[in-house]
Design brief:
Elements: H1 3-17, H2 21-41, H3 55-64, H4 74-77, H5 84-93, H6 99-128, H7 136-163, H8 166-189, H9 194-204, H10 208-232
Helix pairs in contact: 1-6, 2-6, 3-8, 6-7, 6-10, 7-9, 7-10
Keywords: Membrane, Transmembrane, Transmembrane helix
Protein name: ABC transporter permease
Organism: Paenibacillus herberti
Length: about 240
């Protein structure tokens, strides 16, 4: 069985096992929209980043977007107590499945959940308020940047999730939150907003940041696929 075929089978299995996780993902999308809507509405009257340099919009976009590549199910919320990933890998190793197929299946699952989620979020963002700021082509430019960032971030999370125990991964996620908070407070002190910056380059017709973000996402996914397949052979299954 080819790597691609094995990856597709594993992805279908992950979607079938997600259960109510898909519903919780939709709830997260709704929360994201409700929380971000008043913050984005302020942008209609903003002309420079010095008037929109709060840390919260930057933190939400940077910290939450990669999370849309993961099912919000019991395994995700209970990783500290139960090492679901080690158990899952142990089950997969009993089957005639290669490490390359496991790595490709994991990343394909992440991307197949991330992209539809972000497309839905960005489309609703545009219909609700961003159509007052951006044209459809400018919105495409803006969206490509965050899609590229989402792929890059979610693939990095996927590598750590599959290579670490549940407790280690939970601690790492907490560290990431602290890093994001520190970064966003530093942006606020510098009176600079990445959210406003992405809107400004999209409005100006500058496609370079978006193309670089997409390229970075693709290259990161390719690199992590090879690295994950290599590291899986050394991965301990003792949680």
């Amino acid at each position: 069985m080819s790597t691609w075929r094995g990856a597709k089978l594993l992805t279908r299995y992950e979607w079938a096992m997600a259960g109510y996780g898909v519903i919780f993902n939709l709830i997260l999308i709704l929360y994201f929209l409700l929380f971000m809507t008043p913050l984005f509405i302020e942008l209609r009257d903003v002309k420079d980043s010095s008037h929109f340099n709060g840390w919260m919009p930057n933190f939400i976009m940077l910290a939450l977007i990669p999370c849309f590549g993961f099912f919000m199910n019991r395994a995700s919320f209970n990783s500290w107590r139960v090492d679901h990933m080690s158990h899952r890998l142990a089950d997969l190793r009993r089957l005639p499945i290669s490490y390359r197929q496991i790595a490709a299946g994991k990343l394909l699952t992440v991307v197949s959940l991330l992209i539809p989620s972000l497309v839905l979020i960005l489309l609703l963002h545009y219909l609700l308020f961003l159509h007052q700021i951006l044209t459809p082509l400018q919105m495409l430019n803006y969206s490509l940047f965050w899609l590229g960032y989402g792929v890059l971030g979610s693939c990095i999370y996927a590598l750590f999730e599959i290579m670490m125990t549940g407790k280690q991964y939970t601690i790492l996620c907490i560290i990431f939150v602290v890093v994001f908070l520190g970064t966003c407070f530093a942006m606020m002190q510098a009176q600079w907003s990445i959210v406003l910056w992405t809107l400004e380059f999209a409005e100006s017709g500058n496609w370079l940041p978006s193309l670089l973000a997409i390229a970075a996402g693709i290259m990161t996914a390719a690199f992590i696929y090879k690295l994950m397949a290599k590291l899986l052979s050394r991965r301990s299954l003792m949680g």
